Amino acid sequence: MSKSFHYRIRKIHRYLGLLLGIQFIFWTVGGIYFSWSNMDEIHGDLNRNPSPLIYAGSGFISPSVALGKMKSSGHYVDSIHDIKLIQLSGKPYYQFLINDHSVSTHANHTSKPKYKVQLANAITGELRGPLVESEAISIAKDGFKGSSAIREVKLLTETSSHHEYRSGPLPAYAVSFEHPGNATVFVSTELGTIQKIRIEKWRIFDFLWMMHTMDYQGRDNFGNILLRGFSIFGLFTIFSGFILFYVSSGKRKNRIRQK
Question: Which of 110, 126, 182 has its CA nearest to residue 150?
Fold first, then answer.
């Protein structure tokens, strides 16, 4: 094997190692953090109280009664995606998810989920509007474990692709607590329920996951060009290392024979 070829391989290996070294560190550190983390804690499940039970003898009306009130109030109801029974301010409510064909199917951070929401009292059938701030705070306090004081409350009407509540249903209140993990509880104004709980460990996880997938927009695109390119360059780096090892071993053997 010629000296010039050996030199070129060594040079390629050196520059590829320099280019990929930092990314390899992120892959390794991320893998260690992921494997040593409790995912229930990362997702905020350990900081969430279970949903309150609803008394079965409350005298519920049929959901069709509430649907009738929607139609008589001028609401267009094409088809139902889902109906849930939730508790809001100590009262049972039907949570109707109505398919909305007027919403664009293009993904963005302000139109998900692609349906209209309507809350109706499960006893009287009375329709109600979105949550106000005081109701969102009450729901956040009831759903969050611990007695931490509230640090800040924000109404979110839009989020960026890097926001910790990205792709969550909007509008929503972000209720932040004085908590060791800097916890923030996100409550949807239309759904009337907690959607996500974010803590500091999740934020670290999210950053490392972004570096791991090399998807600096949505975090979950494993087929992005940058990741594919670095993977191929990584193989080149490994194979060039094998070649250098083989060449160096051959030279070492020749020196031994000459002695």
Answer: 182
Separation CA 31–CA 38 (nearest Å): 13
Q: Please report, for residues 85, 170, 189, the alpha-carbon distance to residue 74 in angstroms, rounded to integers and kept in the order given.
A: 23, 23, 21
Question: Does the CA dihedral 245-246-252-255 come out positive or negative?
Answer: negative
Are 69 and 127 spatial neighbours (Cβ–Cβ below 8 Å)? yes
CB-neighbour burial class of residue 12 (10 A; exposed 0-12, middle 13-18, buried 19+):
middle
SS3 165: coil
**Cβ neighbours for 51, distance < 8 A, ≥ 6 positions apart:** 86, 87, 143
Binning the chain into helix, strand and coil, the percentages to the nearest 5 are 40, 20, 40
pLDDT of residue 13: 66
Cβ-based burial of 55 (10 A; exposed 0-12, middle 13-18, buried ≥19): exposed
pTM of the model: 0.81
**202-217 as b/e, with b when 16 or more CB fall inside 10 Å?**
beebbebbbbbbbbee
Q: In the block, which residue shows the tokens 């349906």?
A: 115
28 secondary structure, DSSP code: H
Domain ranges of the chain: 3-38+208-258, 45-198
55 or 184, which is more confident = 184
Whether residue 239 has pLDDT greater than 80: no
Tens of pLDDT, residues 158-170? 999 899 999 999 9
With a CB cutoff of 8 Å and minimum separation 6, the contacts of 252 are none
